């Protein structure tokens, strides 16, 4: 298989082509580290001491904190200097998202403002719209929100009932309808609102986006929602009753609202993963410190194997997710910069780059949110009864994390999208998956090559790990190819199969990202424990992939076909001997010594 540099790896190509190097958090430059530290200190000093007051939604508090973030440049970091932003690159913006991710409800409010509240105007606004709103959004003088979801339209966003009717003289649009679950709605100054333009004849029924200002007559708000978590974030319903807005508040083109919604989601999924990484680091820090200090049977509970397993597994899952996050972030950043060099405007360059890596962004969203849910759940368990008390911060972390599996498209939708996007790209000729699946099928019928390398907790054969992951890719392609042949266009109705395949693909991406990062750092630091983190993830992923592969096959294959495909699991998903217990104990020892997450 050909080895290529990360900047030339196209979206989804990780499944068929390996990379010999990736960008990692260890590659951040000095300025990026300084900006991260500044953002983290802001959360530590300005947000953590006020978490109870934030959760009580003290009037004006969230707005004042957003204003302080704006003064530091955090709200406008990714906006061009032309509009009052800092003009920082995508990697730096991701670092800020990570640092702020430990800010609980504030993180949600800021992410909604800087992401879905600002980016639609940046990417799709007219020059006049950008000049009017972006400078204020960059400083926090204007606060933004995004109104897409309706009572009957969640994941199926295009089924929304909110309408926009042109006025007789064409100078206005008259909006009628309802939106729910709108973050920042209690104080936002402007909303990106999606509605169907009456009389439009396009296939999307005129689904369009509009900029609606808060003081617009006919716009009203429901009471604050009482939520399970992120209690400090403002969440209200919006009601539009003959709400008249100027015609020049149309954002983009009539009937192209889906382009805005879906493109913003790609970037939002990557941002959500970054925030999850930041939140997980904080939860692991709390877990390690509590386990070091809490004694039972005259010993710190961190000395017990059951707790060591939990601490190490928290670190392993975070390491894998963080590795995949910054691998993807650099790919998007590199493609954006390549487009800029070709004269493509900044606004289009990042959108195109994010669309190219939409598969990877969906993977990040699912893996990031589920990694964080695991970490905070085990953080509560490590704290025991105290973890169930509001006096300890892990209880808030547990409640606040749950929404992430619903934000930015549910994890179920994103799992289905991973396969849907890969198959569509194959059919369009953008990704040679069919050829790769055929090659895997041919190899299955040939005599197997020996894979005799044995890895252990004291040495790492990275070539063996890469070979193992390459075999997983063949298995995924083989099963996916067989499922496509079996169901053709009806495969989209076989969601159980699609979700099992997506789980395999996600494990492949995270495992490869972990191994590439560990390999890169071990060349610089031979005594690094990074290889142990990667090896534990690979060892456990082997069993997960075996299970998901069997579940997928049992759902559609039988007889000789089933026997042949099951032989592919035995051939392409072999378990290599590795002492995960010993590796986890060494990982935990490092965490205990550092008294925090240290990888």
Q: Can you give a write-up of this model?
A:
The protein is an alpha+beta fold and 599 residues long. Among the domains are: 116 residues, Acyl-CoA dehydrogenase/oxidase, N-terminal domain (Butyryl-Coa Dehydrogenase, subunit A, domain 1, Orthogonal Bundle); 110 residues, Butyryl-CoA Dehydrogenase, subunit A, domain 2; 164 residues, Butyryl-CoA Dehydrogenase, subunit A, domain 3. 55% of the residues lie in helices and 9% in strands. The protein has 19 helices and 10 strands. Strands 1, 2, 3, 4, 5, 6, 7 and 8 form an 8-stranded mixed sheet that branches. It has a two-stranded antiparallel ribbon with strand order 9-10. A hairpin with a 5-residue loop joins strand 2 and strand 3. Helix 11 packs antiparallel against helix 12. The protein is globular, with a radius of gyration of 25 Å. The two termini are 31 Å apart. The N terminus is likely disordered.
């Amino acid at each position: 298989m050909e080895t290529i540099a990360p900047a030339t790896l196209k979206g989804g190509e990780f499944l068929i082509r390996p990379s010999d190097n990736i960008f990692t958090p260890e590659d951040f430059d000095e300025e990026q580290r300084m900006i991260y530290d500044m953002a983290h200190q802001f959360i530590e000093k300005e947000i953590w001491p006020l978490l109870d007051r934030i959760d009580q939604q003290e009037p004006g508090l969230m707005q004042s904190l957003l204003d302080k973030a704006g003064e530091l440049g955090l709200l406008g970091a990714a906006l061009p200097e032309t509009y009052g932003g800092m003009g920082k690159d995508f990697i730096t913006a991701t670092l800020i998202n990570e640092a702020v991710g430990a800010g609980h409800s504030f993180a949600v409010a800021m992410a909604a403002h800087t992401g879905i509240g600002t980016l639609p105007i940046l990417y799709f606004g007219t020059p006049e719209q950008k000049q009017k709103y972006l400078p204020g959004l960059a400083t926090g003088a204007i606060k933004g929100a995004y109104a897409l979801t309706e009572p009957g339209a969640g994941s199926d966003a295009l089924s929304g009932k909110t309408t926009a009717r042109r006025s007789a003289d064409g100078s206005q649009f008259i909006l009628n309808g309802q939106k729910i679950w709108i973050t920042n709605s209690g104080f936002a100054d402007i909303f990106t609102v999606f509605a169907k333009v009456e009389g439009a004849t396009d296939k999307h029924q005129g689904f369009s986006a509009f900029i609606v200002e808060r003081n617009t007559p006919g716009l009203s708000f429901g009471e604050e929602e009482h939520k399970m978590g992120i209690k400090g974030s403002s969440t209200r319903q919006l009601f539009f009753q003959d709400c008249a807005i100027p015609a020049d508040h149309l954002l983009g083109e009539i009937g192209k609202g889906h382009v805005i919604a879906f493109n913003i989601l790609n970037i939002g999924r990557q941002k959500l993963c970054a925030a999850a990484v930041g939140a997980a680091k904080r939860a692991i820090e709390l877990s390690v410190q509590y386990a070091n200090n809490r004694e039972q049977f005259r010993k710190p509970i961190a000395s017990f194997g059951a707790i060591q397993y939990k601490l190490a597994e928290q670190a392993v899952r975070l390491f894998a997710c963080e590795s995949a996050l910054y691998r993807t972030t650099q790919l998007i950043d590199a493609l954006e910069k390549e487009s800029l060099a070709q004269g493509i405007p900044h606004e289009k360059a990042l959108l195109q780059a994010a669309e190219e890596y939409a598969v990877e962004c969906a993977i990040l969203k699912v893996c990031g949110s589920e990694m964080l849910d695991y970490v905070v759940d085990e953080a509560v368990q490590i704290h025991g009864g105290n973890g169930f008390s509001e006096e300890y911060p892990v209880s808030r972390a547990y409640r606040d994390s749950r929404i992430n599996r619903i934000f930015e498209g549910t994890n179920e939708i994103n799992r289905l999208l991973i396969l849907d996007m890969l198959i569509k790209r194959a059919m369009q000729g953008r990704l040679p998956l069919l050829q790769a699946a055929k090659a895997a099928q041919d190899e299955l019928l040939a005599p197997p090559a020996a894979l005799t390398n044995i890895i252990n907790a004291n040495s790492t054969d990275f070539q063996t790990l890469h070979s193992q992951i390459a075999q997983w890719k063949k298995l995924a392609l083989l099963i996916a190819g067989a499922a496509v042949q079996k169901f053709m266009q009806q495969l989209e109705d076989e969601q159980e199969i699609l979700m099992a395949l997506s789980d395999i693909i996600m494990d492949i991406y995270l495992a490869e990202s972990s191994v590439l990062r560990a390999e890169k750092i071990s060349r610089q630091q031979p005594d690094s424990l990074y290889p142990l983190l990667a090896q534990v993830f690979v060892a456990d992923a082997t069993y997960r992939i075996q299970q998901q592969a069997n579940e997928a096959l049992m759902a559609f294959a039988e007889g000789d076909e089933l026997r042949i495909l099951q032989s592919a699991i035995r051939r392409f998903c072999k378990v290599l001997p590795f002492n995960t217990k010993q590796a986890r104990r060494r990982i935990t020892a490092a965490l205990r010594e550092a008294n925090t997450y240290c990888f």
